[in-house]
Protein backbone atom coordinates (compact mmCIF):
# COMPACT_ATOMS: atom_id res chain seq x y z
CA UNK A 1 0.00 0.00 0.00
CA UNK A 2 1.45 3.35 -1.07
CA UNK A 3 -0.12 6.64 0.03
CA UNK A 4 0.85 10.02 -1.43
CA UNK A 5 -0.08 13.14 0.52
CA UNK A 6 0.16 16.85 -0.11
CA UNK A 7 -0.03 19.26 2.85
CA UNK A 8 -1.47 16.51 4.98
CA UNK A 9 -4.29 15.63 2.52
CA UNK A 10 -4.49 12.13 1.11
CA UNK A 11 -4.54 12.31 -2.66
CA UNK A 12 -3.43 8.91 -3.83
CA UNK A 13 -3.81 5.37 -2.52
CA UNK A 14 -2.32 2.64 -4.69
CA UNK A 15 -2.07 -1.10 -4.06
CA UNK A 16 0.75 -2.48 -6.23
CA UNK A 17 -0.07 -5.55 -8.26
CA UNK A 18 -3.82 -5.12 -7.91
CA UNK A 19 -6.27 -4.46 -10.73
CA UNK A 20 -8.41 -2.42 -8.33
CA UNK A 21 -5.78 0.18 -7.47
CA UNK A 22 -7.17 3.69 -7.46
CA UNK A 23 -6.38 7.23 -6.38
CA UNK A 24 -8.42 10.33 -5.60
CA UNK A 25 -7.64 13.70 -7.13
CA UNK A 26 -9.76 16.82 -6.50
CA UNK A 27 -12.54 14.68 -5.10
CA UNK A 28 -12.73 12.36 -8.14
CA UNK A 29 -11.65 8.72 -7.95
CA UNK A 30 -9.49 7.28 -10.75
CA UNK A 31 -8.54 3.69 -11.58
CA UNK A 32 -6.36 2.15 -14.35
CA UNK A 33 -9.51 2.08 -16.49
CA UNK A 34 -10.24 5.79 -16.02
CA UNK A 35 -12.66 7.67 -13.78
CA UNK A 36 -14.44 5.34 -11.40
CA UNK A 37 -18.22 5.13 -11.32
CA UNK A 38 -19.46 7.78 -8.86
CA UNK A 39 -22.21 7.57 -6.29
CA UNK A 40 -21.34 4.14 -4.93
CA UNK A 41 -21.66 5.24 -1.31
CA UNK A 42 -25.17 6.72 -1.52
CA UNK A 43 -26.88 3.55 -0.31
CA UNK A 44 -24.59 3.38 2.71
CA UNK A 45 -25.14 7.04 3.55
CA UNK A 46 -28.92 6.63 3.30
CA UNK A 47 -28.74 3.62 5.61
CA UNK A 48 -26.75 5.67 8.13
CA UNK A 49 -29.41 8.38 8.12
CA UNK A 50 -32.18 5.79 8.49
CA UNK A 51 -30.49 4.11 11.47
CA UNK A 52 -29.95 7.37 13.36
CA UNK A 53 -32.52 8.31 16.07
CA UNK A 54 -34.03 11.18 14.07
CA UNK A 55 -37.49 12.44 13.17
CA UNK A 56 -38.59 11.93 9.54
CA UNK A 57 -38.41 15.69 8.92
CA UNK A 58 -34.84 15.74 10.25
CA UNK A 59 -33.85 12.92 7.89
CA UNK A 60 -35.34 14.82 4.97
CA UNK A 61 -33.48 17.98 5.99
CA UNK A 62 -30.16 16.13 6.05
CA UNK A 63 -30.92 14.48 2.72
CA UNK A 64 -32.04 17.69 1.02
CA UNK A 65 -29.40 20.10 2.29
CA UNK A 66 -26.32 17.96 2.91
CA UNK A 67 -26.29 14.45 1.45
CA UNK A 68 -27.52 15.13 -2.09
CA UNK A 69 -25.31 18.26 -2.59
CA UNK A 70 -22.34 16.26 -1.28
CA UNK A 71 -22.34 14.18 -4.48
CA UNK A 72 -22.56 17.15 -6.87
CA UNK A 73 -18.82 17.76 -7.14
CA UNK A 74 -17.95 14.14 -7.89
CA UNK A 75 -20.80 13.64 -10.36
CA UNK A 76 -20.17 16.89 -12.25
CA UNK A 77 -16.44 16.18 -12.73
CA UNK A 78 -16.95 12.48 -13.48
CA UNK A 79 -18.26 10.81 -16.58
CA UNK A 80 -21.67 9.65 -15.45
CA UNK A 81 -24.47 8.28 -17.60
CA UNK A 82 -28.13 9.17 -17.35
CA UNK A 83 -28.88 5.66 -16.14
CA UNK A 84 -26.52 6.24 -13.22
CA UNK A 85 -28.33 9.46 -12.30
CA UNK A 86 -31.73 7.76 -12.58
CA UNK A 87 -30.50 4.95 -10.35
CA UNK A 88 -29.38 7.44 -7.71
CA UNK A 89 -32.79 9.13 -7.82
CA UNK A 90 -34.52 5.78 -7.38
CA UNK A 91 -32.38 5.03 -4.33
CA UNK A 92 -33.28 8.38 -2.80
CA UNK A 93 -37.01 7.96 -3.45
CA UNK A 94 -36.97 4.42 -2.03
CA UNK A 95 -35.42 5.70 1.20
CA UNK A 96 -37.91 8.59 1.48
CA UNK A 97 -40.83 6.22 0.93
CA UNK A 98 -39.66 4.16 3.90
CA UNK A 99 -39.17 7.21 6.12
CA UNK A 100 -42.63 8.61 5.33
CA UNK A 101 -44.37 5.24 4.81
CA UNK A 102 -45.56 6.25 1.34
CA UNK A 103 -46.91 3.73 -1.19
CA UNK A 104 -45.06 3.04 -4.40
CA UNK A 105 -47.57 4.83 -6.65
CA UNK A 106 -46.95 8.30 -5.18
CA UNK A 107 -46.19 10.67 -8.10
CA UNK A 108 -42.48 11.13 -8.75
CA UNK A 109 -43.06 14.87 -8.93
CA UNK A 110 -43.95 14.85 -5.23
CA UNK A 111 -40.36 14.10 -4.25
CA UNK A 112 -38.40 16.65 -6.28
CA UNK A 113 -37.87 20.41 -6.57
CA UNK A 114 -39.43 23.19 -4.52
CA UNK A 115 -41.50 22.74 -1.38
CA UNK A 116 -43.68 25.73 -2.29
CA UNK A 117 -45.22 23.78 -5.19
CA UNK A 118 -46.49 21.14 -2.79
CA UNK A 119 -43.49 18.81 -2.87
CA UNK A 120 -40.72 17.54 -0.61
CA UNK A 121 -38.04 19.70 -2.23
CA UNK A 122 -35.47 16.93 -2.81
CA UNK A 123 -33.18 17.81 -5.76
CA UNK A 124 -33.14 15.30 -8.61
CA UNK A 125 -29.75 14.04 -9.81
CA UNK A 126 -31.32 13.45 -13.25
CA UNK A 127 -31.84 17.17 -13.87
CA UNK A 128 -29.42 18.84 -11.42
CA UNK A 129 -26.18 17.24 -12.64
CA UNK A 130 -26.62 17.98 -16.40
CA UNK A 131 -27.62 21.54 -15.48
CA UNK A 132 -24.48 22.01 -13.39
CA UNK A 133 -22.30 20.54 -16.16
CA UNK A 134 -23.86 22.86 -18.73
CA UNK A 135 -23.48 25.93 -16.50
CA UNK A 136 -19.87 25.13 -15.59
CA UNK A 137 -18.69 24.59 -19.17
CA UNK A 138 -20.76 27.35 -20.79
CA UNK A 139 -19.23 29.96 -18.50
CA UNK A 140 -15.83 29.19 -20.01
CA UNK A 141 -16.86 30.98 -23.21
CA UNK A 142 -17.01 34.32 -21.35
CA UNK A 143 -13.75 33.91 -19.46
CA UNK A 144 -11.22 36.75 -19.51
CA UNK A 145 -8.44 34.18 -20.10
CA UNK A 146 -7.76 33.34 -23.73
CA UNK A 147 -6.55 29.84 -22.80
CA UNK A 148 -9.84 29.06 -21.06
CA UNK A 149 -11.80 30.29 -24.09
CA UNK A 150 -9.64 28.05 -26.24
CA UNK A 151 -10.40 25.04 -24.06
CA UNK A 152 -14.10 25.83 -24.45
CA UNK A 153 -13.78 25.20 -28.19
CA UNK A 154 -12.25 21.76 -27.65
CA UNK A 155 -14.36 18.92 -28.97
CA UNK A 156 -14.54 17.12 -25.61
CA UNK A 157 -15.98 20.23 -23.93
CA UNK A 158 -18.46 20.73 -26.74
CA UNK A 159 -19.45 17.06 -26.52
CA UNK A 160 -20.13 17.46 -22.80
CA UNK A 161 -22.26 20.55 -23.44
CA UNK A 162 -24.27 18.71 -26.10
CA UNK A 163 -24.75 15.80 -23.68
CA UNK A 164 -26.06 18.16 -21.02
CA UNK A 165 -28.44 19.89 -23.44
CA UNK A 166 -29.76 16.54 -24.65
CA UNK A 167 -30.19 15.31 -21.08
CA UNK A 168 -32.14 18.45 -20.18
CA UNK A 169 -34.54 18.17 -23.10
CA UNK A 170 -37.82 16.60 -22.03
CA UNK A 171 -40.35 16.11 -24.84
CA UNK A 172 -38.77 18.98 -26.74
CA UNK A 173 -38.87 21.23 -23.67
CA UNK A 174 -35.43 22.56 -22.60
CA UNK A 175 -34.81 22.72 -18.85
CA UNK A 176 -31.57 24.69 -18.79
CA UNK A 177 -32.50 27.24 -16.12
CA UNK A 178 -33.64 26.44 -12.61
CA UNK A 179 -37.07 28.02 -13.02
CA UNK A 180 -37.86 25.78 -15.98
CA UNK A 181 -36.85 22.69 -14.01
CA UNK A 182 -39.07 23.75 -11.12
CA UNK A 183 -42.05 24.18 -13.44
CA UNK A 184 -41.35 20.78 -15.02
CA UNK A 185 -41.48 18.94 -11.70
CA UNK A 186 -44.54 20.97 -10.68
CA UNK A 187 -46.34 19.95 -13.87
CA UNK A 188 -45.56 16.27 -13.23
CA UNK A 189 -47.15 16.55 -9.81
CA UNK A 190 -50.16 18.68 -10.71
CA UNK A 191 -51.06 16.53 -13.72
CA UNK A 192 -51.24 13.42 -11.54
CA UNK A 193 -54.51 12.47 -9.88
CA UNK A 194 -52.96 12.62 -6.40
CA UNK A 195 -51.24 15.95 -6.98
CA UNK A 196 -53.69 18.17 -8.84
CA UNK A 197 -55.16 19.48 -5.57
CA UNK A 198 -51.75 21.04 -4.82
CA UNK A 199 -51.71 23.25 -7.91
CA UNK A 200 -52.14 26.50 -5.94
CA UNK A 201 -49.93 25.73 -2.94
CA UNK A 202 -47.33 28.29 -4.02
CA UNK A 203 -49.78 31.14 -3.44
CA UNK A 204 -50.10 30.56 0.31
CA UNK A 205 -46.89 30.22 2.31
CA UNK A 206 -48.55 28.60 5.32
CA UNK A 207 -49.74 25.67 3.19
CA UNK A 208 -46.17 24.50 2.55
CA UNK A 209 -43.99 26.07 5.26
CA UNK A 210 -44.50 23.07 7.58
CA UNK A 211 -42.75 20.76 5.08
CA UNK A 212 -39.31 22.28 5.76
CA UNK A 213 -38.93 25.50 7.74
CA UNK A 214 -41.60 25.04 10.42
CA UNK A 215 -41.44 21.27 10.85
CA UNK A 216 -39.49 21.27 14.13
CA UNK A 217 -42.62 21.68 16.28
CA UNK A 218 -44.29 18.62 14.75
CA UNK A 219 -43.91 15.11 16.06
CA UNK A 220 -42.59 12.52 13.64
CA UNK A 221 -45.95 10.75 13.56
CA UNK A 222 -47.89 13.92 12.77
CA UNK A 223 -45.37 14.87 10.06
CA UNK A 224 -45.84 11.50 8.34
CA UNK A 225 -49.63 11.66 8.58
CA UNK A 226 -49.68 15.22 7.21
CA UNK A 227 -47.93 13.97 4.08
CA UNK A 228 -50.42 11.11 3.75
CA UNK A 229 -53.29 13.59 3.74
CA UNK A 230 -51.42 15.99 1.47
CA UNK A 231 -50.72 13.50 -1.33
CA UNK A 232 -53.92 11.44 -0.98
CA UNK A 233 -52.45 8.21 0.39
CA UNK A 234 -55.00 7.59 3.15
CA UNK A 235 -56.19 3.95 2.89
CA UNK A 236 -59.70 4.53 1.57
CA UNK A 237 -61.46 1.90 -0.53
CA UNK A 238 -60.98 3.85 -3.75
CA UNK A 239 -57.25 4.36 -3.01
CA UNK A 240 -56.48 0.76 -2.02
CA UNK A 241 -58.43 -0.78 -4.92
CA UNK A 242 -56.45 0.85 -7.72
CA UNK A 243 -55.77 -1.65 -10.49
CA UNK A 244 -58.22 -4.17 -9.03
CA UNK A 245 -61.59 -2.65 -9.91
CA UNK A 246 -63.22 -5.45 -11.84
CA UNK A 247 -66.57 -7.16 -11.61
CA UNK A 248 -66.62 -9.02 -8.34
CA UNK A 249 -63.57 -7.13 -7.07
CA UNK A 250 -63.22 -5.31 -3.77
CA UNK A 251 -66.09 -2.91 -2.93
CA UNK A 252 -65.48 0.83 -3.17
CA UNK A 253 -68.73 2.07 -1.58
CA UNK A 254 -68.55 4.05 1.65
CA UNK A 255 -68.61 1.80 4.73
CA UNK A 256 -70.82 4.34 6.54
CA UNK A 257 -73.71 3.63 4.18
CA UNK A 258 -73.62 7.02 2.44
CA UNK A 259 -74.40 5.52 -0.96
CA UNK A 260 -71.25 6.97 -2.54
CA UNK A 261 -67.68 5.86 -3.21
CA UNK A 262 -65.21 6.01 -0.34
CA UNK A 263 -62.65 8.67 -1.20
CA UNK A 264 -60.54 10.77 1.14
CA UNK A 265 -62.40 13.92 0.02
CA UNK A 266 -65.77 12.41 0.94
CA UNK A 267 -64.59 11.01 4.28
CA UNK A 268 -62.98 14.29 5.36
CA UNK A 269 -65.45 16.79 3.86
CA UNK A 270 -68.79 15.14 3.17
CA UNK A 271 -69.56 12.10 5.30
CA UNK A 272 -72.20 12.47 8.03
CA UNK A 273 -70.07 10.43 10.43
CA UNK A 274 -67.26 13.01 10.35
CA UNK A 275 -69.53 16.08 10.53
CA UNK A 276 -68.75 16.71 14.19
CA UNK A 277 -65.02 16.50 13.56
CA UNK A 278 -65.30 19.01 10.71
CA UNK A 279 -67.05 21.49 13.00
CA UNK A 280 -64.35 21.08 15.66
CA UNK A 281 -61.62 21.57 13.05
CA UNK A 282 -63.34 24.66 11.65
CA UNK A 283 -63.72 26.22 15.11
CA UNK A 284 -60.12 25.41 16.07
CA UNK A 285 -58.77 27.12 12.96
CA UNK A 286 -60.84 30.23 13.57
CA UNK A 287 -59.78 30.43 17.19
CA UNK A 288 -56.22 30.83 15.93
CA UNK A 289 -57.32 33.50 13.45
CA UNK A 290 -59.38 35.37 16.05
CA UNK A 291 -56.56 35.39 18.62
CA UNK A 292 -54.13 36.72 16.00
CA UNK A 293 -56.54 39.49 14.96
CA UNK A 294 -57.10 40.55 18.56
CA UNK A 295 -53.36 40.72 19.17
CA UNK A 296 -53.16 43.11 16.20
CA UNK A 297 -55.80 45.41 17.73
CA UNK A 298 -58.90 44.27 15.83
CA UNK A 299 -62.31 44.08 17.49
CA UNK A 300 -63.65 40.66 16.52
CA UNK A 301 -67.14 39.13 16.52
CA UNK A 302 -67.53 35.42 15.80
CA UNK A 303 -70.52 34.15 13.81
CA UNK A 304 -72.73 37.25 14.21
CA UNK A 305 -76.32 36.98 12.95
CA UNK A 306 -77.45 39.56 10.37
CA UNK A 307 -81.12 39.38 9.40
CA UNK A 308 -81.56 40.81 5.90
CA UNK A 309 -84.52 41.04 3.54
CA UNK A 310 -83.30 38.00 1.64
CA UNK A 311 -82.21 35.67 4.43
CA UNK A 312 -80.12 35.22 7.54
CA UNK A 313 -76.42 35.99 7.02
CA UNK A 314 -73.92 34.44 9.44
CA UNK A 315 -70.28 35.03 8.46
CA UNK A 316 -67.57 33.28 10.43
CA UNK A 317 -65.73 36.40 11.61
CA UNK A 318 -66.35 40.16 11.41
CA UNK A 319 -63.32 42.25 12.40
CA UNK A 320 -63.39 46.05 12.94
CA UNK A 321 -60.44 48.43 13.34
CA UNK A 322 -60.15 52.17 12.62
CA UNK A 323 -63.55 52.25 10.85
CA UNK A 324 -62.42 49.39 8.58
CA UNK A 325 -64.57 46.26 8.53
CA UNK A 326 -63.31 42.87 7.36
CA UNK A 327 -65.62 39.89 6.79
CA UNK A 328 -63.84 36.52 6.93
CA UNK A 329 -65.62 33.37 5.80
CA UNK A 330 -63.78 30.08 5.24
CA UNK A 331 -64.45 27.50 2.57
CA UNK A 332 -62.86 24.27 1.37
CA UNK A 333 -62.72 23.79 -2.39
CA UNK A 334 -61.42 21.22 -4.83
CA UNK A 335 -58.87 21.72 -7.59
CA UNK A 336 -61.64 21.96 -10.19
CA UNK A 337 -61.75 25.72 -9.61
CA UNK A 338 -59.14 28.29 -8.66
CA UNK A 339 -58.99 30.14 -5.35
CA UNK A 340 -59.92 33.40 -7.06
CA UNK A 341 -62.99 31.94 -8.80
CA UNK A 342 -64.23 30.35 -5.60
CA UNK A 343 -63.70 33.61 -3.72
CA UNK A 344 -65.70 35.57 -6.28
CA UNK A 345 -68.55 33.05 -6.12
CA UNK A 346 -68.53 33.29 -2.32
CA UNK A 347 -68.70 37.09 -2.46
CA UNK A 348 -71.54 37.04 -4.98
CA UNK A 349 -73.44 34.62 -2.78
CA UNK A 350 -72.99 36.88 0.22
CA UNK A 351 -74.06 39.93 -1.79
CA UNK A 352 -77.28 38.25 -2.83
TrEMBL record:
This is Reverse transcriptase. It comes from Trichogramma kaykai.
Amino acid sequence: MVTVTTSGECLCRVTPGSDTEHFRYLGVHFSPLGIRKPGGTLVRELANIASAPLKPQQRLKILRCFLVPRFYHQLVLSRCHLQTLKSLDRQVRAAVRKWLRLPKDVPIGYFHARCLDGRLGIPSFRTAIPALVHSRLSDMAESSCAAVRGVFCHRSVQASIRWAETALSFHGRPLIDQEARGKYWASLLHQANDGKELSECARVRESHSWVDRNSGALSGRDYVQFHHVRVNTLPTRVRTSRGRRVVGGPPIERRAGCGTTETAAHVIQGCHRTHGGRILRHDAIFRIAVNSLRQLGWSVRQEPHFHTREDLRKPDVVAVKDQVVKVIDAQVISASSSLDDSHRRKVRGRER
